[in-house]
């Protein structure tokens, strides 16, 4: 605990960060710093634009500087699987890392989070990878769209780090049918093969669905971050009036062209702010070992993204 005001730094201030490329759109610093302040911690959370070619060096630098932990966003979540020393069960299950906790080895051999130590952190520090995205997505779908995966038909745009985790989580929650669309067909095929092997009762197809209704259209690509980005699908192949709900993981802008088109058609829509909140609260709990102040973090996100 500390009595330092939120704007004051000290020589003992601990750091955590989000790494991505690009990163300037990120609302994570606003959210996490609000949570950190509410917990009374002498920590700060910052953002760094890190090219994928430099990700390993960035993680090693954070380890050397005794960062508390890191969040990883596009395009680092799959790359980091081979850049950490150990994987939590969540990262092994979903095959992607979006949260790293740095841990130090005590004299007796036990590993403890760096956050548990004072000024003297033991010399041996390891990076442990976690995934908080999968549960964060499911909570957001339930809260924002009243969506339950069991028995549903879902079209998933994107088979990269976020898309892969989303597809596996929906399959684990017993979605009936998944339709995978990706710019590189081979990546979608590899994901379909993995889903079929792990969840054989879930039907998986590559490409657009037939003319039947779709329960959820989920955008897990980065298309939408720029106002000039096109809608990440062919509306002639899947008219939005055949879709019940649309979820876009992009949260800035708050309404992408996809969400605007879907809302105009009468679909229930939501952006990725809820997912960001829930994966972020869990990440803070991973680092601190304490319940996250979710409401303070939610309000900070809304101010940052919506200005309210």
State the end-to-end distance.
29 Å
- Nearest-integer average pLDDT: 94
Q: Which CATH class of the largest domain?
A: Alpha Beta
Strand content: 15-25%
Number of strands: 13
Helix share bin: 25-40%
Q: What is the count of structural domains?
A: 2
Structural classification: alpha/beta
CATH architecture grouping of the largest domain: 3-Layer(aba) Sandwich
Number of helices: 9
Radius of gyration (Å)? 20 Å
Secondary-structure element order, as H and E?
EHEHEEHEEEHEHEHEEEHEHH
Shape label: globular
Uncertain residue segments = 1-5
Major sheet description: 7 strands, mixed
Q: Would you tell me which CATH topology of the largest domain applies?
A: Rossmann fold
CATH homologous superfamily (4th level) name of the largest domain: Leucine Dehydrogenase, chain A, domain 1
Give a brief outline of the structure:
The chain is of the alpha/beta class and 308 residues long. 34% of the residues lie in helices and 21% in strands. Strands 1, 2, 3, 4, 5, 6 and 7 form a seven-stranded mixed β-sheet that branches. Strands 10-9-8-11-12-13 form a six-stranded parallel β-sheet, with helices on both faces.
Characterize the structure shown:
- The protein has 308 residues and is an alpha/beta fold.
- It has 2 domains: 14-131 and 275-306, Leucine Dehydrogenase, chain A, domain 1 (Rossmann fold); 135-271, NAD(P)-binding Rossmann-like Domain (Rossmann fold).
- 34% of the residues lie in helices and 21% in strands.
- It has 9 helices and 13 strands.
- The protein has helices spanning 28-38, 55-64, 89-94, 133-145, 161-172, 185-198, 257-265, 273-288, 294-306; strands at 14-20, 43-49, 69-72, 86-87, 99-105, 111-113, 125-130, 153-157, 177-181, 203-206, 214-219, 243-248, 268-271.
- Helix 6 links the parallel strand 9 (177-181) and strand 10.
- The longest helix is centred in the last third of the chain and has 16 residues, at 273-288.
- It is globular, with a radius of gyration of 20 Å.
């Amino acid at each position: 605990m500390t009595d330092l005001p939120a704007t004051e730094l000290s020589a003992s201030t601990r750091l955590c960060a989000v790494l991505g490329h690009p990163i300037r759109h990120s609302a994570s610093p606003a959210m996490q710093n609000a949570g950190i302040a509410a917990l009374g911690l002498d920590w700060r959370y910052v953002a760094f634009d890190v090219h994928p070619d430099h990700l390993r060096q960035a993680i090693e630098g954070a380890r050397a500087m005794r960062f508390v932990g890191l969040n990883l966003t596009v395009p680092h979540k799959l790359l980091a699987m081979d850049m950490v020393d150990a994987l939590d069960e969540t990262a092994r299950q979903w095959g992607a890392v979006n949260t790293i906790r740095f841990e130090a080895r005590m004299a007796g051999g036990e590993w403890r989070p760096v956050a548990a130590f004072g000024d003297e952190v033991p010399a041996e520090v390891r990076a442990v990878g976690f995934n908080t995205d999968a549960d964060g997505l499911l909570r957001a779908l339930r809260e924002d769209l009243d969506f339950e995966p069991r028995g549903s038909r879902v079209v998933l745009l994107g088979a990269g780090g976020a898309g892969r985790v989303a597809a596996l989580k929906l399959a684990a929650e017993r979605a009936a049918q998944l339709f995978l669309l990706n710019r590189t067909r081979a990546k979608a095929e590899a994901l379909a093969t993995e889903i079929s092997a792990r969840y054989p009762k879930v039907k998986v197809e590559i490409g657009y669905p037939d003319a039947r209704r779709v329960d959820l259209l989920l955008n897990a690509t980065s298309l939408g971050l720029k106002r000039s980005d096109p809608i990440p699908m062919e509306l002639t192949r899947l008219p939005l009036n055949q879709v019940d709900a649309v979820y876009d993981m992009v949260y800035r802008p708050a309404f992408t062209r996809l969400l605007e088109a879907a809302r105009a058609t009468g679909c229930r829509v939501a952006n990725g702010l809820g997912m960001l909140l829930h994966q972020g609260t869990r990440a803070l709990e991973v680092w601190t070992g304490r319940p996250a102040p979710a409401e303070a973090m939610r309000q900070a996100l809304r101010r940052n993204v919506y200005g309210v």
